[in-house]
Amino acid sequence: MLLTFVIVLLVMIAASLGYSAYHAAQIERTYPNIGELTDIGGFRMNAVHLARPADADLPPLIFVHGASGNLRDQFEAFSHPLRQRAEMLFVDRPGHGYSERGGPENAVPSGQADSIAKLMEKRGISQAIIVGHSFGGAIAAAFALRHPDRTIGVLFLAPATHPWPGGVDWYYTLAAMPFLGWLFTRSLVVPMGMRRLESGTLGVFRPNARPEDYVAKTGPALVLRPHAFRNNAVDVARLLAYVTAESPRYREITAPTVIITGDSDGVVLEELHSRGLARDIPGAELITIRNLGHKPDYVANDVAIAAMEKLAGLPRDLQAIGRQAETRIAGLTGTAMPALEPNG
Known about the structure:
- The protein has helices at 2-30, 71-82, 109-122, 135-146, 170-175, 179-187, 189-205, 214-218, 226-246, 274-280, 296-299, 301-311, 318-332, and strands at 36-39, 44-50, 61-64, 88-91, 128-133, 151-157, 257-262, 285-289.
- The protein is an alpha/beta fold.
- Strand 3 (61-64), helix 2 and strand 4 form a beta-alpha-beta unit.
């Protein structure tokens, strides 16, 4: 009886491993790499680099995606409206999207910030405005602390930067474990994740509508590949200890800073993170938008672009622009967000 149970269990595990491997390959065929890999010394980072247009009116912009993401997310939000205005670098963080992981230092935001600085050097970008969404906010803060000479300004979008009560979801903890994590990410993550992809992406935007073609354009399924999910889990599992140790240093950030957040963010608590940054970073400007969830990069895209303009030295009344966004968001309640602009 016991032998039969063991055989059945092993067959189920083998079938699940095969299913996951096949569908992980399918995900990569559906969402191929749109960037270019660059050796930054020991490993390769992936990014889409849009060269400086002749009539640029903004400095270079570096975009850092959040947890469970890849460069397509910020690329779809910002590349079209800013294409004729700035040099842009959309980065796959180490171990995410199509970037290689590199060494153990890349398991925390400081190491990832250093990797982005090396990539900037390879790409000939001496200084830039750093734009970080969600988990990318912790990396943007680390960048401003560690590379102030390269930081023209920092834009935080619904950032995760400060200690929070409680821990993280169980699947992050499990996936980060040495052996069980290996087995979990290669057997159960793909089938479980594919079933939750629709509800998960809707939840990230809630209470706002998600663009109709968001999943097709941004490739969130890329995080379900075993190596990517494990790297993402390790990042998330280590974030609390990291920001607990590092957040007291945010007062050392000297770069001009803007924080855009929503009062209805169900993913990252704005009262802890965004207000914490506004309190800690001297001169930081906080724009809190009513009825906005976790995706100001899409739902309040105009406010984010106005913030980049202000960080570049252009006169912008961000509070007034934020109020205009609130009026627009109130008018969109209960309606679908239009499809994303095409990028080519």
